[in-house]
Structure formats: structure tokens, C-alpha cells
Amino acid sequence: MRNTENTIEAGAQRLSLDQLHRWEALKFGMFIHFGMSSFTGEELPSGTQPSLQYAPDKLDADQWVCVARDAGMKYAVLTAKHVAGHCLWPSQQTDYHVGTSGNTTDVVEAFVKSCERRGVLPGIYYCSWDNHHRFGSLTPSDFMRLYPNRKFDCVSQLREVYTTRQYQDFQTAQLEELLTRYGKIAEVWIDIPGLLPRGYRNELYHQIASWQPETVIMMNHGIGDGSEFRVHYAWPTDLIAIERFLPNSHTGHVKWREIEGKKYYLPGETCDPIGREWFFTEDDSPRSDEELLGMYLTSVSRGSNLLLDVGPDKHGLIPDKFVGALQRLRSNLDRFDL
What we know:
This protein is α/β, with parallel strands linked by helices. It has a single domain (about 1-125, about 220-335), classed as TIM Barrel. It is built from eleven helices and ten strands. It has an eight-stranded parallel β-sheet with strand order 5-4-3-2-1-10-9-6. A two-stranded antiparallel ribbon has the order 7-8. Strand 4 (about 185-190), helix 8 and strand 5 (about 215-220) form a beta-alpha-beta unit. The radius of gyration is 19 Å and the shape is globular. The chain starts with a helix and ends with a helix.
């Protein structure tokens, strides 16, 4: 009976409680949305833009990481490939990447090396919704084009969009590049995992874990406060995403969950932009100092890390208005000795 109790206490999750507690102790990270969307001004580009449209003229990944470090952030997650399909590393699986663009810097390499120098743990984001590399898939963008009068919801209408096995093989090959070329990656973020069938998600999860055994894997659960976990959309995962919301005000983030008859310890990660947009736009401004402080205090006090998104501009730099907001947030946190 003792062994049974210990098994329950340890949980059925892949990572140990000690490993997950160490991740939770980081508390604060920077989400970095940067890529083709930074140049189109659209969060969800068509994927038809030429690679040369991506052309930062002052790209400085080290500035991003230093801004994160100085704000008290312990880790950072970079959007290596978002909906546009344009890759921030020279992928061998496609010619739609930085190597054929207006700035050929391997951004993933520069970012990871800067994290290593500055004492910030690197994370990599990869989006399963890809408008450039379809391989016969039907993306949410296709759905919205085919049915302009129907509102699309990623969770409720997943039966009507899909990825093909050819696309899934492409995703696996690209993630292999990202997770075997650049050294140790602390967190792997898979966005829109519901486009991937459950069998492939299981396969991908275990493959990621084989390449990066100590990484924390996020299959993004999507918009919501984390109270409800939709197994059909985001399982398996090591974390539960709390996107565009704060953790539930009554319960906080509930870390122990029973899924398919087993108990798992699943920490929470609140993610939201410093302004209103994930990617930089000229008219976006940071939230008030009070709101940013409240986002941090509420997330952490309710048992979740905060992954605050800050988008570099078309030059490839985090703008002064966001740097200033983060510096003031750091000062406010110092006042509370946090």
C-alpha cells in the first residue's frame, strides 16, 4: 500500500516533481513573437509573402535576452515558426526561411547562444498551423476563406480542419533540426496541437522527449483560465496553458489532474502580451504599470508562471516603450522583494 501511495504522490507524468518544481520556481519568462508577421502587420498571414519581405536591418537577439534578464525573467521562448510558415533558422526541409530572406541571420542560433551567455533558459515555439507548408492539409485560414460567414473556433471545429501525414512528417523533421542542432532547450512550445491527431501527438511528444529529455513540453491548451483541460485538443503535455486569461480566481491553478484514469502534476503557464498584440504593430502600446504588476502578482499567487510576450519591431529590436515598461515592472517587483 505504501508503494501505491508513493506512486500516486509522484504522479504519472514523465518529469519528476523536483524537475517540475524547478521549472515553477522560474516564475517569470519572456515570450518573443517575431517573424514574418512582424513585417506583414498580421498575426495570421496567408503564407504567400516572399521570404525577402522578412528583412530586419538591426536584428539583435542579444538585446532581447538582456531585456528579459534585466526584467527579472528567468527564461524566454522564441517563435521559431508561426502561422506564416517562415522559419527563423535555415531549415533543410524548405526554402522558406531566413537563409533566403532579407536578413540571413540564424535567429534561433543567435537567441540560444545569447541565452547561454546571459543566464536565461531558452525555449522554442513551433506552430502546427502553417499556411505556407500545407502538404494537402486544411488549415483554419482555409476554413475561414471557404466559409466566410461562419466563425471559426479551434476547439469546437477541429473536425473540419486537419493536417496530413506528409505535413506531420515535415513538422517532426523541422523539430528534429531545432532540438538537435542548438544545444539544451528548456521548454518546447507546440501551438495549435489540436490540428494534430492524437496518435501523432503521442508520437511527437515522446520524440521531443527523446531529443531533449529534460525539457518541459507545452502542448498549448489555448484561450481560457486553465480550469477545464481538453484532452482531445492538447494531450499529452507537461504544462497547462492559461492564454489571454489569468488563473481561475476561485481555485487558482489546479496542478493535480486526473486524465484517463491517472493522476498527473501539471503546472500552469499564463501567457499574454505586454500590450494587446502578440507581434509588434506600430500602434500597440504597453499596458499600464499597475496592470502589468497585477498580471505578475495574480499569476504567481494563483500558482502559475507568467510568460509575458514582448514583440521586437521591424528593425529586430524590442522598442524603447516596451523596454521602459519592463524596467518599471522590475522596479515595482523589487519594491515587494519579489
